[in-house]
Amino acid sequence: MSQPNNPFDPAMQQFAQLGQAMTQQFFAFLGSQQAQHPLGGAPIKMGTPEPAKLTALQQEFLQQQSMLWQSMLARGNAGEASAPPAFEVQPEAGDRRFSAPEWKQSPVFDYIRQSYLLNARYLKELVEIAPVEDEKSKNRLRFLARQYLDAVAPTNFAATNPEFIKLAVETKGQSITDGINNLIKDFEKGRISMTDDTAFEVGRNLATTEGAVVFENEMIQLVQYSPLTETVAKRPLLIVPPCINKFYILDLQAENSFVRYAVEQGNTVFLVSWRNVKAEQGKLGWNDYLEQGPLTALRVVREITGEEKVNALGFCVGGTILSSALAVLAARGEDCVASLTLLTTLLDFSDTGEIGLFIDEQSCATRDATIGKGGLLTGRELAGTFSALRANDLIWNYVSGNYLKGQKPQAFDLLYWNSDSTNLSGPFAAWYMRNLYLNNSLRIPGKLEMCGVKVDLGQVKMPAYLLATREDHIVPWQTAYQSTRLLGGPTKFVLGASGHIAGVVNPASKNKRSFWTNDDTSADAEGWLTTAEKRKGSWWSDWAAWLKQHADGDLAARTKLGGKGYKQIEPAPGRYVKEKA
Q1: What is the 3-state secondary structure (H, E, C) of 356-412?
Q2: CB–CB of 357/41 below 8 Å?
Q3: Are residues 340 and 465 in the same domain?
Q4: pTM of the model
Q5: How far is residue 201's CA from residue 144's CA, in Å, rounded to a whole number?
Q6: Do 129 and 21 sit in the same domain of this protein?
Q7: Core vs surface per residue 214-232: b (16+ CB within 10 A) or e
């Protein structure tokens, strides 16, 4: 006697076929030459998963798809007043893409939502059982899988996004028209709009701390800021921001300006404003950035102020450049810096997070053969690379909002800065990626020659304040902690809350977030954190108190900017920071 047909059999067969097809397509994507990060990298050598593991994973996937399908059918039969579903797929913590009520109000879109989340979970688990040659390759697969899954999310497409449909109906199609207009405008810009660009202007409501450009060369302008106190520390403070971004991340608006805060604390503040290099500067290399950047700035600051020693601060790659410059000075027998502050800076590049996953011999050789001989690493390419590290927040969020919903992004100074990209000289970028990211040579005494001398960070012996941030995806805090082992002087390590930017730009006046301190750096990074003291508020106040120890006394504020052969060229922030990529 024949068995009655199970009404779920056709659906189960389709789910099984879906799982097999999805597996094949996904592995083909991961193994393809096109599955490359913008920085490049050799193709990943990937074997076939063990049959037993793959079968078990596919059976679990099929079972969960069956449970989801039956749950959706039960909901449809019971209507809106039904009890909570027996099976529901939840997004990962922090995933806000499906938070709008429209995703759950309709059984169709609720199924689309949960099916996507289930498929994403399955594909991520596929990556975990895929055999590769090393952990770096595994991490590259994880990154590429995330890029793929973020891109195919139903939130990114009109037909599968209920928020798009609801808004289109409510506005009688105006949201669609607005979205198309937003897309056209962004196409003309060559980038996705993350904020209202008309709300900000450098020099008008960004980078407004009063001062003047007192020196310039082909690579930098040196800004000196006007005092805000009657007396100042005898030793001036030189700030070296990253050349990969515009300096005004440290001087946004008055209430969150680190530069203004440093001036308010009674410091004579100078700041390096890196040029947004053009084709004419495409020949400049690492040594040129050191010589024309911090080495020149230190000399000029000392000549203007008449002080023998300077306090110096570097942020991100600016800190790497500054530390390298100080190692050059040490090799030359020069001692002109009294204290060093490094904010989210790498000196040891053993773990560089996801940026380093795609820097290998092949990608470096390609850079060496192209822009390494002259040219530019463009700001657009750099911006795309960093946005890809947080694609949901910095790409797809705006694709959905700007183009599907026809919305205009809100005015946000930090995102305006994030969109204000900067070019790098090709030879500089190629040297940086090969010698630091790939070979990790800066940590090895005497391995690198810079500006004609062998450098050793162990000879950089002034006291150092080292800040890392706990959620930093660009400079992992555990790697930044390794600087305590490399620098030759006494170090104070501080761990701030939040990420690479928000953890640094954390105004003391707002008393937000927290930070950890521990004077004992003898343990490894995790051991240091275990016994560290958690303190409420901003690390800014802690740093200001530390810096006062290296002031060498006070004197009347230097009200005249420049002097001693250095004239005021133009008001701060200067024209270099206003140049577009």
Answers
A1: HHHCCHHHHHHHHHCHHHCCEECHHHHHHHHHHHCHHHHHHHHHHHHHHCCCCCCCC
A2: yes
A3: yes
A4: 0.91
A5: 36
A6: yes
A7: bbbeebbbbbbbbbbeeeb
Q: Of 243, 316, 364, 451, which residue is the catalytic one?
A: 316
- Among 134, 157, 180, identify where a domain stops: 157
| β-pair partners for 271 | 223, 239
Amino acid making up residue 397 = N
| Residue written as token pair 């099976």 | 87
Tokens of 494: 């501080």
Residue 245 domain flag: yes
Q: Note if 364 is an active site residue.
A: no
Residues 343, 216 within the same domain? yes
Q: For the segment 11-33, what is each residue's pLDDT rounded down to a tens digit?
A: 556 666 666 676 677 766 666 54
- In angstroms, the CA 429 to CA 431 distance is 6
- CA 460 vs CA 237, 464, 485, 486: distances in Å: 18, 9, 12, 9
Whether 285 is in a domain gets the answer yes
| 152, 217: one domain | no
Domain of 58 in residue numbering reads as 9-157
Q: Is the Cβ–Cβ distance between 180 and 370 less than 8 Å?
A: no
Summarize the confidence of residues 396-410 as an average pLDDT.
94
Q: What is the pLDDT of residues 56-98, one digit of tens each?
A: 998 999 899 889 888 888 776 655 545 567 688 999 988 999 9
DSSP, residue by residue, 160-171: G-HHHHHHHHHT
DSSP letter string over 233-254?
ESS-EEEE--TTS-GGGGSSSG
225 in the same domain as 151: no
Q: Are residues 248 and 322 in the same domain?
A: yes
Q: Which two tokens stand for residue 168?
A: 């289109």
Structure tokens at 448: 């690198």
Give the CATH number, domain containing residue 510: 3.40.50.1820
